[in-house]
Amino acid sequence: MNPSTLGPTSTITEDEDFSLTGGLMGALESMRVLDMTQYEAGTSCTQALGFMGASVTKIERPGTGDPGRGVARGTDNAPYFLNWNSNKRSIALDLQKPAGRDLFLQMVSHYDVFVENYGPGVIEKLDIGYDVMKKINPGIIYARLKGFGLSGPYSDYKSYDMIAQAAGGAFSVTGEADGPPLRPGYCVGDSGTGMQLAFAITAAFVHKQKTGEGQEIEISMQEALTYYMRTPIANGSNWGQSVSPRNGNRAVVPTDLFPCKPFGPNDWVYVMAQTSRMWDTFCAVLERTDFLTDDRWKDVESRRQNGDSLYEEICKWTRERTKHEVMSELGAAGVPCSAVMDTVDLFNDPHLESRDFIKTVSHPTEGDLKLLGFAPLMSEHEVDYRPAPLLGQHTKEILNEDLDLGSEAVDQLIAQGVVNESPIDQALIPKGSPSKS
Fold first, then answer.
1. DSSP strand E in 330-366: where?
2. Tens of pLDDT along 71-107?
3. What helix, strand, coil percent values describe the chain, rounded to 5?
4. What is the strand order of the sheet 55-60 is part of?
5. Could you report the per-residue pLDDT of 290-325, keeping only the tens digit for each?
């Protein structure tokens, strides 16, 4: 079979000899990653590397695995886990057992990158720090993701996504101007940090390709979050001397949310008519050329001062249309706007469907799953989407590949509780065999 004929949703059967990327060339196909991450921040980093073609081996504790496997569902294949662990393999290995730690350290020499985001002190307790791994593999890129970093007064504090967002300022600029700070609904504290770490790892990998040298990388979730605060900081903080305002800024009117029929919780559209040309076009689409001559709204300052009355007039128009109709009319005319897409809209959006962004992967126990894709598109590289692995699904495969351990030796380790493998029939699951670096 010609690998170039495989699309992003192609099914790969067990008798086809493809790599973890499904036979499609990934930009980072020569990178091998030892992934000791959990929940979302670290897993988003290693998933991104996997989407770029890296071979990612996820180290999980036998029996429980990544705690994210049970989030909101109590099983080891919760949707939370399945969304963040595509394009990885799993080995169930008990690092608290001396034999398990020894196996892990033997594996280190076969990898370019190690990533962890465990709580403060866990890595130190296991005695698998950078100094230990560097002796085994001087070229290892050793990446650590922590809530508040490895130094400073907060370094021993535990963190989750929303803790990082609160600490990084995101809560303070979210909400109505005269209301309390609000929790943002998305998870940029975790995944936003993970993306920055993936970028740093890729840069370190380029350096390693040139020099053979590895390095240690540390990233703080609090510090990473501040990167996404640069615009509100620039627009309101006076270089840290003032508190930036919350959402709802009407510096340019109309810039706001407007209600649409049938008036459900997400039946809204957001409009940003930022320039004089956009304002003229906006009025033309609404067939309200009177807006252009009315003294209340004829220029930027008057619209700012009389924004409430203009808002009500615009709402008369939007309330007669659905959010998608408003988006279609204004967007086609050149006025920046978008329907407030909810999680049902995203999976049924004709634009995303036309761009092949909505993927279907076949999971051995959960059936066909729809996943949103990975945004970067590269003209010379493409990677097939693989479902998140079962706990220990690739234990035998990885130990044989990295350490040349046969089935009998692995069976003994399983009997000792050092490793484990998925109870699902392995013959049902597509397998990959990425080449060693």
1. 337-339, 358-363
2. 977 667 899 999 999 999 999 999 999 999 999 999 9
3. 40, 15, 45
4. 215-220, 141-146, 113-116, 32-36, 55-60, 89-93, 419-420
5. 999 999 998 999 999 999 999 999 999 999 999 999
> Which tokens hold the place of 152?
């400073």
pLDDT at 250: 63
Question: Would the pTM of this model clear 0.70, i.e. be above it?
Answer: yes
Which range has the worst mean pLDDT, 19-28, 257-266, 324-333? 19-28
Q: Is 43 exposed, middle or buried (0-12, 13-18, 19+ CB in 10 A)?
A: buried
Q: Where are the beta strands (DSSP E) in 336-403?
A: 337-339, 358-363, 367-372
Cβ-in-10-Å burial (0-12, 13-18, 19+) of 178 comes to exposed
Q: Which domains does the chain have, with CATH numbers?
A: 3-228+374-428 (3.40.50.10540), 255-350 (3.30.1540.10)
Catalytic residue among 76, 112, 190, 402: 190
Rounded Cα distance between 8 and 359, Å, is 7
Question: Is there a contact between 37 and 61 (Cβ–Cβ < 8 Å)?
Answer: no
Q: pLDDT by residue (tens digit) across 13-34?
A: 333 333 443 446 799 999 999 9
Instruction: Evaluate whether 286 touches 310 at the Cβ level (below 8 Å).
Output: no
For residue 385, is pLDDT > 80?
yes
d(CA 195, CA 125): 27
- The DSSP result for 28-56, as a single string, is TTT-EEEEE--TTHHHHHHHHHHHTT-EE
* CA-based nearest residue to 142, from 161, 156, 128: 128
Rg of the Cα atoms in the chain: 25
The verdict on whether 190 is a catalytic residue reads yes
| CA-wise closest residue to 338 among 263, 419, 269 | 269
